[in-house]
Amino acid sequence: SGNGYTKSYEDTEGEESASYSEPHPSLFRTRAKRIIVVEVVKKGQYIVLPCDVDGNPKPNKFTWRKNGKTISKNNTYNIYEGSSLKITKLMVSDSADYTCKACNSLGCTDSTVTLRAFFKMMDYAMHNMSALVNSTATLHCYLQIQPNDNFSYKLFKGKFAEMKHLMDFSGTTDLLKTQRILTIEHVKLEDAGWYTCVAAKYHLDNIYEVIGHKSGYLHVVTKFESSYSVLIITVSVALVAIATCALLVIFGRRRVQSNNKYYPRWIKKITVTRNEENSDIEEFQIPIVTIHRSMIIENNLYKSASESEYEYPTDWEWEVQRCRISLGKLLGEGAFGQVVLAEAFGFLKGDKTVPVAVKMLKESHSDDDVENLVCELEIMKMVGRHPNVINLLGCCTNDGPLYVIMEHAIHGSLKGFLLEHILESDGSEKKIITVQQLVSFASQIASGMVYLSSIKCVHRDLAARNILVAEGLVMKISDFGLARDVHHQEYYRKLTAGRMPIRWMAPESLEFLFFDSKTDVWSYGVMLWEIMTLGGQPYQFLPARENLLRYLKQGHRLEQPRFCPDKVYRVMNQCWQSNPEQRSSFIEIGEQLKTCLDEAPHEKLNLNHD
User: Fold this and answer.
1) Where along the sequence do coiled-coil regions lie (predicted)?
2) Is 466 assigned a ligand-binding role in the annotation?
3) What is the rounded CA–CA span in Å between residue 590 and residue 581?
4) Number of domain units in the chain
5) What CATH number is associated with residue 177?
């Protein structure tokens, strides 16, 4: 649903004018030096470098240096989320040692991240290949992005075994930029082996700077070898290589631990930003949630706390220690996500626990589902507190999967709650409910929507299934992520814009995928109809989105429910005006329902639901 947002922090620019004494070692916690290797695959690519410092008190002032020189905020460098350094328009020239200086009221400390950026070679360049003796082998050497700087392609026999920022390439073969190939004619057995293509910039003193590289293996076979023999040799070599690699990994890890050497691990790093171009507009900004692969280098001094596939941004204002959450039974699940009842420790004074709902992803989730849950979390942070809006209590982003911790609504969704109040087929009652209670539910939800619209938040998915019923029959608006974990055909249809709640959408939303406060009013009217029918399915006879749009454009609307007072139905119809400007505001809806509430009958409903 809705638009979502991330917290903004005040940037710290320039060098500090004050001097600080060295802090006591216990005041700060820093990780060992981290090396990040990244391939530049497109223009406009960016990367976020973390400031791996924590302390007590928490650091509140951060400055960054590149190879010892202080970085000023500009179009390329920007301090992001208060401490991390975001490098936009990433280039190979950004390779350097980046040092973060973190300070609190007691002192300062440094943490260094080494960035190594290289241009990516084309996929067809320098791939492993086989060639017959006396045949011709062609090796391609070509960057995926052509840099503006003057550079040259060089090719030499051997493997680029050790990554170096500067190398002397004497004795290599220069390739013309226009050809970018090396042809080996009359291939001999001794031509077999590793070949490496390097793109390099020339500096003074015959020194070259590597801006991209890739290696490939040339396998040479005699023409007398049968294809079966070639297959046997290839499989044997592959098996030996795998076994060798496995042994190298095992012994390499032991050697790393003993000699303090580095080894790589790939992770998916998640970042959340707001559209800075619209930062002056007084409304929620759609969050920009991105996932990019990043290699981190670990050693025996620094190891990631978790082997999780993802690395989430940590917001210490909302972070909850995972040990304080004890998961319980499953409350509900959809195609990719689930909500679990849990006991939370430390939210109340003493040793008391409090029941909470924890939303998390299922094992079969995709990157899109991760982005959606992170987006919903950021929206809930910004929405704040209101009696009729579900409250965020915290989140767990470190040392495991993402947990979104919310207050627990003991009666579940309003949709399920309403269905429980339908009479059994034999006429016996399940539970008692009155028209006045139904109008009260609608009035509470209108109050919550008055608050959301006042802070410029567009929900985009108002429906009974997205309202939770808390203790005391208090209504709570929830589910602030439009592409959520439900998979019911009648609720969503997969479009280019994602899963959409078509039966609750206004005509302009169906036709143009346009959403604002007035489209929320339309959806509220459909939800009000759901309430007065005890969970009925709107437009049950219309299966397709195109049919619904045509039906609405012809002036048709949902019929008045059997036990719905006339004044309440007039509120619905006012929500369903074709002209959005003629629809009621949520303030007007709230005032109208208060009048209806005083006049609503108190007797229980006698309603059978098909």
Assistant:
1) none
2) yes
3) 18
4) 4
5) 2.60.40.10
